[in-house]
Amino acid sequence: MYKVLIAEDEHMIRKALISQMDWAAMGCVVTGETDNGTRAIGLLLSLKPDILISDIQLEGKSGIEVCQYIQGNGLSVKTVLITGFGELSYAKAAIKLDATDFILKPIDPAELEAAVRKAVAQLDAETALAEEMVKLQAVVEESLPLLKERFLLQLAGGSVPDRNELVQNMSFFNIRLDHYAVLALEIDDYGSYLDAYRPLERQALELALREQCLGLAGPTKQSCYVDFEPNCRLLVVDHERGADLIGMAEAIQENVFDKYGMSISIGISGGSTDPSRLNETVEEAKGALRHKFYSGSRSVVSHADIQDIVRGKTVSPFPYYAAVTRAVLVGNTEEARYQFHKLWSMIGHEADEAYIKNTVVEFIIVIQTSIQSGHINLEHMSFESNVYGLIASQSTVQDVRSTAEALLVTLSDEVRTIISSRNRSVVDRLLQYMNEHYGREITLKELGETVYMNPKYVSRLLKQETGENFSAMLTKIRIQKAKEMMEHGDLKVYEVAQKVGINDSRYFSQMFKKHAGVTPLDYRNRYVSPEK
């Protein structure tokens, strides 16, 4: 039932309106009456009626002033004004103030009923609209994560709306991309992953990966996660705070592997401040991720690392020369083939045989020169030295292509072998140093100085080659040395702990049990002197 307030200065008319109209049949009930405009405003606030029936001429404030109050204060009240013949000018003013209707005195009950029913119809329509809006709002809120991801997918794919729409959408989805970077994640050995898990299990793992990423990225408007391609997920993170993105990526790797046994690799873009260039930033991250072939599974590769690789190297001015060269310099044969195919699509259709052969020879020589500038000795590589003679001797375009690709693959594979050997040699030196100095505190900085490398790079290299981080490897060495001491001596536990560089004997006992499965004393009693 809609509530009605009647404001009429003539007592008899007011009482007749209340008693002679069938309010219930119209879906209404009279909840208040007054002969004064000022009091009518007070009743509007206290009774909160849905419909006001008011004479224009009232004591205190006029019906027009009451309508002005309703409109000025945004009250949801429908008004029906009553006026005499001489007051039509007021009625016109009332219409401008959104009055639902007005009727003339003497009041015709049928005319008043029609006006009330008109107000009721308006209220019904507004109520239905409000209910529908509530339902729509619920649907929108329920679909908001999906709509947000769809919007980010469009941006990441290069579909950028105009500036105003972009700003509106980002505000609606509560996204802020002032200073950001992108992490591109892929599951290693994706084919085996698809074979090992059923669809529902994969969905559960994908949700777990999403939660791990967003949890470690932090609860900011900048942190967004999107399933971009079948085996490529994007994590957009805040880059303004100077966060250690490599550290964040490695933490994600560790958590996902430890909790779910899932191996992932991550490529990291450079920073950006322009939301409309999200697609370019995504391509940087994906480009970095493609270089995981060089370092293997569970890699973290940043765009800056790739830039460091090619900085200062001699490359052809043709963009695809540079792209092939970058791939070969890190031993990424898969990427080298891909970029070579793109280069070939530019030159392979040329009718001039000499042009094709000369171009191929030129780009092979560019790669050789770049490798030499990277301090890799070509004399130790099983590579055809007379490139020009080899290419010139080919009789067909297809022969030129296959020969050039074979040369390229040979270069890339052998560069990868040399780089891997170098890395292994460095790691061997690091492990030797740790085995020689385990009895005192050793830092990553100290290790880096022994091989003239950055401490962060040393940490990543150890993890890449051994599967364990620096502190875990050092602890492993110390526990092994402790076992040897207890097997061939009679030192007390605290003495053994001190000799292996752990001054806290309680902590030593905890770490020993974690690695050996028993306490130091039990180890000595059970494994060293079983006859006792």
Automatic annotation (TrEMBL):
Highest taxon above the source species: Bacteria
Alphabetically ordered keywords of this record: DNA-binding, Phosphoprotein, Transcription, Transcription regulation
Sites bearing 4-aspartylphosphate, chain numbering: D55
Statement: the UniProt record of this protein carries the keyword Cell division: no
Limits of the Response regulatory domain: 3-120
Gene3D superfamilies according to UniProt: 3.40.50.2300, Homeodomain-like
Cited SUPFAM superfamilies: CheY-like, Homeodomain-like
Pfam family, one: Response_reg
Domain HTH araC/xylS-type: 428-526
Official protein name in the record: Response regulator
Organism: Cohnella silvisoli
